[in-house]
Each structure stands twice: as structure tokens, then as C-alpha cells.
Design a protein that fits this description.
Blueprint: H1 3-10, H2 13-33, H3 46-57, H4 67-70, H5 73-88, H6 90-100, H7 107-116, H8 125-151, H9 157-172, H10 193-208, H11 210-217, H12 219-222, H13 227-251, H14 263-275, H15 292-304, H16 317-331, E1 338-339, E2 342-343, H17 346-373, H18 378-389, H19 404-419, H20 421-428
Helix pairs in contact: 2-3, 2-5, 2-7, 2-20, 3-5, 3-19, 5-6, 6-8, 8-9, 8-10, 8-11, 11-13, 13-14, 13-15, 15-18, 16-17, 17-18, 17-19, 18-19
Amino acid sequence: MSPLLSKWIRFSPPQVLVLGFAFIILAGSLLLMLPISSSTGDSLPFIDAFFTATSATCVTGLVVVDTGTYFSTFGQVVIMLLIQVGGLGFMTMATLFALVFKRKISLKDRLLLQEAMNQNTMEGIVRLIRKVLMYSLIIESCAALLFTIRWSFDMPFGRALFFGIFHGVSMFNNAGFDLFGEYRSLTQYVNDPIVNLVTMFLIVSGGLGFIVLSDLIEFRQRRKLSLHSKVVLSMTATLILVGALVIFVFEFTNSNTLQPLDWGGKIWSSFFQSVTPRTAGANTVDIGGLRQATQFFMIILMFIGASPSSTGGGIKTTTFTILVGAVISMIRGRSDLVLFRYRLAQERIFKAVTITMLALFLVIAVAMVLSTTEDASFLSILFETTSAFGTVGLSMGLTGKLTIAGKIIISFTMFAGRLGLLTLAYALGPKKGKELYRHPEGKMIIG
């Protein structure tokens, strides 16, 4: 065994994930710098190529150059491949090749897959990866077909086909990249039911997580859902409905967003803008034209994000559910947190609090630093920071104006948001085993 391979094997699963994503980003940056990647034949500066590759690999969607007009077909294909690898995870793609070439999945590979999919056990991990690949291919293919049929009325069939494939991959992986140019996203389809429905379905299905998708597809045979799926589905539905209602009320009389639209357009827009902060990044109205109350509300939705084992970011819906449940339990004077008649272990509550506090510290720290490097309002900086952490991709217009320091900071934030703060923490300092002793209990006043 070579010394290099020996050193690689000694890396912990979190360290391998961090290094693997970093390698993909670097490779993508070099490809996007090539003259063949731009429509004009010019070479993209490294910092812009690095930012774009990071945004694509971390399935975010923040862009410093217009994807639809600046990049050539080759460059757009590179971005699409980075989105696919980043959304499903490089270990998932590596497992695909291993299965195709009938290579045995080693214990080390299974440990990496367990970490990448955020699972508690290795049991059934390869079977889960097979489902991930199959579900992703089927959903993206069906969406690409529907998009192609719809857009073939607006453009030549070949272009509509490429647009369909690109946006099917981008939206299912919650990336938010689009090819319509001029940073318009899907604003020209604000009243289009097909584009709205297909896009929202892709965003939600990608954000639910593959475990939930598997539970839903196998529900007819098993006739039951896991606790995880029940929590994810109920919280996702709640956030979408509440979000749509809040956006509808706040923006109903806003001349820059909903007021000019008919009732159908108002409803479509309200639901779309409620779904897209779940780490998707596409939009059908001008985000910069929203009222400040709506923008701040979307920051909250972006911070919560999608669900575990999905293509999305944020602190995750399950984490938010545990926090809300813990608060309600404390108010009611109960010592246990019970969800759907199941009691959650204290370890789960501690993990939820840890993830939330780390996320808050990161978002606050990055926003404070950007306030000194960027010439913009604090709300737009906070919006951009949360969008990067949640791997959302929505922007109030700050991305294209970022300084070099700002681009580096936002790139790191996207990277941290995609991998997860606990994974980064474990990669920098591997977690130690359980303590063999307990300290005496102390008492202190709280509240």
C-alpha cells in the first residue's frame, strides 16, 4: 500500500468528506476558468470561477456572473455536473461507479456513506444509496420531460431539451441556477402553472430527504411512516402553508411584487416564494422588491432550511421541530419531549441546540465581518449570509457587488452550510468517546 493511500485511509469520515468536496470545488474552478467555458472565449478570473464552483457544488445558486449569458454550453454542463455531484454527494456518486463496476463496498466506504447521509447506523446504507440514485434519476427525468414540453413552445426543441435537463437537475438538487439570463430566474413564468408546479415539486421532493421519499414510495406496502418522516412532512407542510400566508398578507398591496398580479398569480407567487427559501434559490418575483418584513421572514425560513439527508441546507426541519417541542415541553412543565407518542433522548435535544447555536454564531459572525467589507445595508448582508449558510441562493442584489474578501467569506459560508457545522467541527477535531465518569450535579439560576 502506498504511503499516500495509507494516509488517506487514516482520515476520519468527516475529514474525507471535507477534502472530497474541496477537491471537487477546485477541479470545477479550473474547468470554469478555461476559455471554452465562457461564451466569449475569455478566461474567468479564479476568484469568480472558485465562487461559482463552490456555489454549484454546495447547491446554493448565488452567482457573480450570469449563468445563462456568460457561460458557454460546456461551462453550463460543468455547472450542472457540479450541482449533481454536490447535491447527491460525491460519496454517492463514487458508490454508483462502484456498483456499476461491481466493486465491493468496503467498511471504510460504508462509514463514509453513513457520515455523508447523516445516518445513525451503517445498516442498509448501500440499499439507501441505490434508492437515492434511482429516485433522483426518475424524478429529474420526469421533470426534464415536462420542462422540455413546456419550453418547446417558447424556444427551439434542442434548446428546450437542454433547459429542461439543466433545470430538472438544478431544482431537484435545490441549487437555484437558471439559464434564462439577466439574473431573471423564473420571473417571466410567475403565472405559469406548469413551471410553478413542477419547480415547487422538485424543490420540495429534493428538500424532504431521501429517507422520507423512500418511506412515502413504500407506504403502500408498509402502511406506516417512521417518526422521522412524520416530523419532516408535518413541519414542511406547516412552514410552506404559514410562509405562503405571511407572504400573501405582507405583499398583497406591494406594487413591486404581488399587487400587479391577478388572484392566480398572487397565490402562485405566495406559495413559490414560501417554498423556495427551503434552500432552492429560484424566484418568480423580485426579491429586492419585497417589503423588509417579508425579507426578514424569508431569512428565518432560509435559516431553518430543508430536512436531513436531502439536497438542502439550513439547520433542518427536524432540528427546528425539536427546539419548538422542547420549548413547549418546558412551558408545560414536562421533563420529556414527546413527538407523535415517541420520547426523544436528551442527546437529540443537545444536538439540536448545538447545531442551532453554531449556525447562529456563524451567521452573526459572517454578517458582522461583511458589514465592514461590503457597502450595503445590514438587512441585505444578513439576507446574503443566511442564503449562503442555508445553501439557498436567493439574493437582494448583493452577490454581484461583493468584494474579493466578500466572495471568499461567502464561499466559506456556503461550504460550511453544505457540509454541516458538526461535520466541519469533527473534521477539525474528531469527537472523543463517552466520558467514564460524571461530575457532581450543580445548581444555578436560569431566566
